[in-house]
Design brief:
single chain; 330 residues; alpha/beta; TIM Barrel; 13 strands
């Protein structure tokens, strides 16, 4: 845990002086010209053999060895891309599968990304009620009192949240977001093929995802940054027509857009997720960036497993160009 004393000096970048993380995210998107987030979702088979061999030689073929391999892999990708991007999105399940050692690597990854001044979106998809929801919110976004001291837990800047339990599951997160000036992204219309089994069900003449979008706008109305709410939404790139509708339903909510690249989404599908100023959405790519070295298009440019991080940088640049081109031509 990261210790935070009551009289701690506020952050020099100004975001500890009353500015919100949604403002920081918007500012960094403007600065980089890159409305994208790199999903740090490492499976062990994404990690090049030379990294695994070095980790296993030190820690054995153990969870600690796997966690070390993933840490070195993440660090190299962050080092190669941090100057191009505003944010990263580590998916906690990819770390939890290795138990405590994997969770330690999740924390190291969050901390290292903060050192690089990246906004960190914790993809944790929490959803519960009452004290349990409050504990999740505290653990990922808030601070916990232990005796006379206060500590931050994982200390992400945003977290993803499942709204299935209704306001009882969301309010504890919103309360922590108001207190810490952080944010959440609520699952509204997800990118997976079977999402429609529930999300597309018609209720009172409208699909369920539209009802959820209306609640997102309501929940976020009283916790605003300069232009956007602390309460955002997850809407998959694979459903562009739904994204167009939901952009209108949630005009002040930032939209986190998964499903780009490996899941089939492309820049041309995304234009309606953005507002006219080119803001309002951030697009995620995970294995399309972190495992880019496996793609033929980058192999043809001289990429090998030894310089895998160079492929990640090229993939980020290609994604930026794809989205920018689509936005310019709309």
């Amino acid at each position: 845990m990261n210790e935070v004393f009551a009289n701690q000096t506020l952050a020099e970048d100004g975001y500890g002086k009353g500015k919100s993380m949604i403002n920081k995210l918007v500012d960094k998107i403007k600065k980089t010209g890159a409305p994208i987030v790199v999903g740090l979702d490492p499976m062990l088979d994404y990690v090049p053999e030379q990294i695994k061999a070095a980790a296993f030689s030190e820690f054995g073929e153990t969870p600690a060895g796997a966690a070390e391999a993933i840490w070195q892999y993440n660090k190299a990708i962050v080092d190669a891309t941090y100057d191009l991007i505003p944010a990263v999105k580590p998916q906690i399940a990819m770390y939890e599968q290795f138990g405590v050692e994997g969770v330690k690597t999740f924390q190291k990854t969050v901390d290292y990304c903060h050192e690089k001044d990246l906004v960190v979106i914790g993809d944790v998809k929490r959803g519960d009620i009452g004290s349990t929801s409050a504990a999740y919110a505290t653990g990922h976004l808030g601070k916990v009192q232990i005796g006379s001291k206060v500590y931050a837990g994982f200390d992400e800047d945003f977290a993803t949240v499942n709204p299935y339990l209704g306001t009882d599951g969301i309010k504890p997160f919103v309360d922590v977001c108001k207190e810490q000036k952080k944010g959440i992204f609520i699952l509204v219309k997800t990118s997976n093929p079977s999402s429609g089994e529930f999300q597309d069900r018609i209720i009172n003449g409208k699909p369920l995802y539209e009802h959820v979008g209306e609640k997102v706008a309501e929940w976020g109305a009283d916790c605003m940054g300069d232009a956007y709410s602390y309460v955002g939404a997850v809407v998959g790139a694979t459903y562009p027509e739904q994204g167009k509708l939901l952009r209108k339903v949630m005009p002040k909510s930032f939209i986190l857009v998964p499903g780009y690249g490996a899941q089939g989404g492309k820049g041309a599908d995304l234009v309606h997720f953005f507002n006219e100023d080119g803001l309002g959405a951030i697009v995620n790519s995970s294995r399309g960036i972190i495992a880019a070295y496996k793609q033929d298009v980058y192999k043809e440019k001289g990429i090998t497993p030894e310089n895998f991080a160079d492929a990640s940088r090229l993939a980020v640049q290609d994604m930026i160009a794809d989205i920018a081109g689509a936005l310019a031509s709309r």
